[in-house]
Specification:
The chain is α+β, with helices and mostly antiparallel strands and about 325 residues long. About 50% of the residues lie in helices and about 10% in strands. The N and C termini lie far apart (about 85 Å).
C-alpha cells in the first residue's frame, strides 16, 4: 500500500514537473515573442499580411514604423515600385492632403519634389556646373544651372538638319544625325527647331511669355532662366516640314509616331509626355526631346516614367 502511494506521489510530481517545464518554456517563448517586431506591430494594429510586408524593411526602418501610429497606407506604400523609405513622411502627408489620388501618384509626386511649390527656394537643389552626371544632369523647376553655365563641347548644326542657327553638344548632334538618317530611310524628315539656349536667351523668352499672358501661363510653357534644359545643350525641339511644321500639330505627324517608338534607340526621350504634367511641371510637349544616352533612354522608355522620376529613384546610382 505504501509503495503504491509513493508511486502515485512520484507520478503526480512528474506530471507537475512536466507542466512546470512546459509552462516555463512557453512563458519564456512568450516573453521573447513580446520583444519581437511582429508582436509590437500587432499591438499597434497591423494584421499578419501587413506585418509580413513591413518586416522586409531594414531594422532601423522597422523601428521608425514602430514609433508611428497604425496607418493603413504604410504597407500599401511599401508595395509601390518606386517607394523610397526616406520619403515616407512626405508620402503620408501628401496622401492625407490628396485623398482622391492613388498612392502610386503620391509616390511619384513626392519623389520628384512636386509636392512643393515650383521654384521653391527652400527646396531647390543647385546643380551649378555639375558635370559629373555627364548626360544625366537634371534640370527642372527645382534643380537649376548657374547663369555662367555653358557646355564646352557645343558644335554648330548644319542647315540641312535645322531651321535657323543652332548649336548642340557634339554627342547629341552625332546621335541626332543617326536618328535623322534612319527616319529618312522611311521617308520621314526630322528638323531641329531649337536647341542650345543661353541663360540670357531663355530669360528673354520667358519674360516675353510673361508679358504676353502672365506668369502662371509663362511657367506652364517655358522654364525660367537657369532652369531650362535647353541650357544644358542636351535638348532638341524637333519638328518636321509640310502640314505638321507647327509645334502644336507635331504629334499628329508620322515623324512623331516614329520617334515615339524609336527615339530611345538613339538616346533620346520625350521629356514632357502627356499625362505627366503634374510630375514634370510643364504642359505636354510632343516636340521636346532630351538626350540621356541609349542605356538610360531605353530604361525610361521601358519603365514608362519621366526623367524626373528616373533621376529620383536612381539618384544614388547616378551621382555615385
Amino acid at each position: 500500500m505504501k509503495r503504491r502511494r509513493i508511486k502515485k506521489e512520484v507520478y503526480i510530481f512528474g506530471i507537475i514537473l512536466i507542466l512546470v517545464i512546459v509552462f516555463a518554456v512557453f512563458g519564456i517563448r512568450y516573453l521573447i515573442y513580446r520583444g519581437t517586431d511582429e508582436y509590437k506591430l500587432k499591438k499597434i494594429g497591423y494584421q499578419k499580411d501587413e506585418i509580413a510586408i513591413i518586416e522586409k524593411l531594414e531594422k532601423e526602418e522597422v523601428s521608425k514604423v514602430l514609433q508611428m501610429e497604425y496607418n493603413i497606407s504604410i504597407p500599401k506604400l511599401l508595395k509601390e515600385k518606386y517607394f523610397i523609405f526616406a520619403n515616407l513622411d512626405d508620402y503620408l502627408d501628401y496622401a492625407k492632403q490628396n485623398q482622391d489620388e492613388n498612392l502610386s501618384h503620391a509616390v511619384s509626386m513626392v519623389n520628384v519634389g512636386a509636392n512643393h511649390e515650383y521654384y521653391d527656394q527652400n527646396f531647390v537643389i543647385p546643380t551649378k556646373t555639375d558635370l559629373k552626371n555627364e548626360y544625366l544632369i537634371l534640370v527642372n523647376k527645382f534643380h537649376y544651372l548657374g547663369k555662367d553655365f555653358v557646355p564646352d563641347d557645343l558644335v554648330s548644326v548644319k542647315n540641312w538638319y535645322a531651321y535657323g542657327e543652332n548649336e548642340i553638344r557634339e554627342e547629341v548632334y552625332r546621335q541626332f544625325i543617326a536618328m535623322f538618317n534612319d527616319a529618312q530611310k522611311e521617308d520621314l524628315k526630322l528638323i531641329i527647331n531649337s536647341s542650345y539656349r543661353t541663360y540670357e536667351r531663355q530669360e528673354s523668352l520667358w519674360n516675353g511669355y510673361k508679358r504676353s499672358q502672365g506668369q502662371e501661363w509663362a511657367d506652364s510653357v517655358a522654364a525660367r532662366a537657369g532652369y531650362s534644359e535647353h541650357q544644358t545643350g542636351l535638348t532638341l525641339d524637333i519638328t518636321t516640314d509640310g502640314e505638321y511644321t507647327t509645334m502644336d500639330k507635331f504629334d499628329q505627324s508620322d515623324e512623331f509616331k516614329w520617334l515615339s517608338k524609336n527615339a530611345h534607340k538613339y538616346g533620346f526621350i520625350l521629356r514632357y509626355p502627356k499625362g505627366k504634367e503634374d510630375i514634370t511641371g510643364y504642359d505636354y510637349e510632343s516636340w521636346h526631346y532630351r538626350y540621356v544616352g541609349v542605356e538610360t533612354a531605353t530604361k525610361i522608355y521601358n519603365m514608362g516614367i519621366t526623367f524626373d522620376e528616373y533621376y529620383a529613384y536612381y539618384k544614388d546610382e547616378i551621382e555615385g
